[in-house]
Amino acid sequence: MTAGDPIVRVEGLVRHYRLPRESLFRPAPVSHALNGVDLTVAPGQSLGIVGESGCGKSTLARLVMALDRPTAGRVEVLGQDLGAMDGRSLRAHRRHFQMVFQDPYGSLDPRQKVRRIVAEPLDAVPDMASDPPARQARVAEVLEAVGLRPTDMDKYPHEFSGGQRQRIAIARALVTRPQVIVADEPVSALDVSVQAQVLNLMLDLQAEFGLTYILISHDLAVVEYVCPQVAVMYLGRVVEQAAAADIFRRPAHPYTQALLAAVPNRTARSGGAGGRRRRAVLQGGAGGAMAMAPGCSFADRCPRAEDRCRIERPALRPVAGESGHLAACHFATEVQGVPGTGAAAGEIASG
Ligand SMILES: Nc1ncnc2c1ncn2[C@@H]1O[C@H](COP(=O)(O)OP(=O)(O)O)[C@@H](O)[C@H]1O
Ligand SMILES: [Mg+2]
Fold first, then answer.
1. Which atom of ligand 1 is the closest one to the Cα of 289?
2. What residues are neighbours of ligand 2 (ion), with CB under 5 Å?
3. How far is it, in rounded angstroms, from Cα 168 to Cα 101?
4. d(Cα 84, Cα 59) in Å, to the nearest integer?
C-alpha cells in the first residue's frame, strides 16, 4: 500500500441470506441484503453511510470487518484482501480496523470488568502491550482518551450510563491503535443530549489519532457532522456518493433528494446531531430485501421514473460537471437541486 491508496476498498460486494424454507415444494427464499456495493475510503476522509432501515448498512459493516463472509465481491483493508486471509492473519490484521456497535448495553459483556473488555482486542496483537503492566497502562491511557477515569477499569458495564458505555466501546476500539473504525449507529441508542457529546469525542479522537471512520447512521445530521464523504444506500446498493457538502447541497439521486426533503429545518440546526423528527416524503415502503426487480430498485417509489428505469439498471457513474460525485440514476444530470416534494409517508426508522 502506498500513499494515496484507499484505506478501505469494497468491490462488487454481494451478500444474500438464504432463509428457512416455508414449504418443501418451494425454493428457500433469499434475502438480498447487499447487491453489488463498490466503495472506496481514502485515509482521513471519513465516510458516512446513510439509508433507511433494512438497506444493508449493518451487513456492509460486518463484511468490512470480516465478521461475515460475502456471497461475492471483495473487501480490502490497507491493501489486504480480507477474503484471502486465514483466521490467524485476519485476527492480527484487525488491529488496524476496529468496530463500535450500536447498542452500548448489548455490546459489552456484563460479566467482565472494563479492564478486561477494553484490553480484549490486544489478545490478537501479542507484540503490543505484551505484559500485564503494559496492558493496564494502555487501558488507562485509552480510558482517559475517551473522557473516563483510569480507575473506571475496575468497574462493570452496568455501573455506567449509556453514553459512558459507548465511551468504553470506543476505548476498546482504540486500544490497538487502529487506523479505521467502523461505527454502526454509534449514537442511535443514546439520549439526544448525549449524542453530540459522543460525536464530538469521535471528532476529537480522529484529530488526535489520525483515525478514519466509516460511520453508519440512518440520521443524516449525524453523518453530516462527522464525515467529509457520504454514501447513500438503497436496497443493498450505493445510489449516490460524494463529498458531504455536495450530497447535502446538490443531491443528484431522487432517493437522496427525498431523504433530505424529509428532514425539517436542516439549515436551522446547530451544533451536532439533534433529535429532530425525520419525516420522509417517500411514498410507500422500501419493498424490502426480498424483491429484486430488474431496473432501478427505486423506480417504484420514484417521482421521475420512466419505462427505462424499470428495465435498465442505472450504474453508479459521475454526475455531469461534478468531480467526485457519483449517482446511480439515468437522470442524474437533470434532476439536481430541488428536493422533491410529495405526500408525507413513512418514518425513516432507526437501522
Ligand atoms: N443474518 C441474516 N439473515 C437473514 N437476513 C438478514 C441477515 N442479516 C440481515 N438480513 C437482511 O438483510 C437486509 C439488510 O439488513 P441490515 O444490513 O441489518 O440493514 P440496516 O443495517 O441498513 O438496517 C434486511 O432485509 C435484513 O432482514
Ligand atoms: Mg443496521
1. 25
2. 57-58, 351
3. 11
4. 19
Q: How far apart are alpha carbons 70 and 12 in whole angstroms?
A: 10
Return the C-alpha cell found at 108: 459489552
Distance, in Å, from the CA atom of 167 to the CA atom of 308, rounded to the nearest integer, reads: 49
Q: What is the DSSP letter of 278?
A: -
Atom of ligand 1 nearest to the CA of 52: 22
Contact between residue 36 and residue 13 where contact means Cβ atoms under 8 Å apart:
yes
In the block, cell 428536493 appears at: 339
> Do 167 and 157 meet the contact criterion of CB atoms below 8 Å apart?
no
Question: What sections of 113-219 are H helices per DSSP?
Answer: 114-119, 132-145, 162-174, 192-209
Q: How many DSSP H helices and E strands does the chain contain? A: 10, 12
How far is the C-alpha of 304 from the C-alpha of 42, rounded, in Å? 33
Residue 233 CA to ligand 1 center (angstroms) comes to 13
Please give the mean pLDDT across all residues of the chain.
87
Q: Which residue has the higher pLDDT, 232 or 293?
A: 232
Whether the CB-CB separation of 212 and 180 falls below 8 Å is answered with yes
Q: What is the dihedral of CA 151, 156, 158, 164, to 10 degrees?
A: 40
Which residue has the least CA distance to atom 27 on ligand 1? 54
Q: How far apart are CA 153 and CA 198, in angstroms?
A: 19
Q: What is the mean pLDDT of residues 197-216?
A: 96
- pLDDT at residue 107, as a whole number: 87
Please check whether residue 3 is in contact with residue 191, taking contact to mean a CB–CB distance below 8 angstroms: no
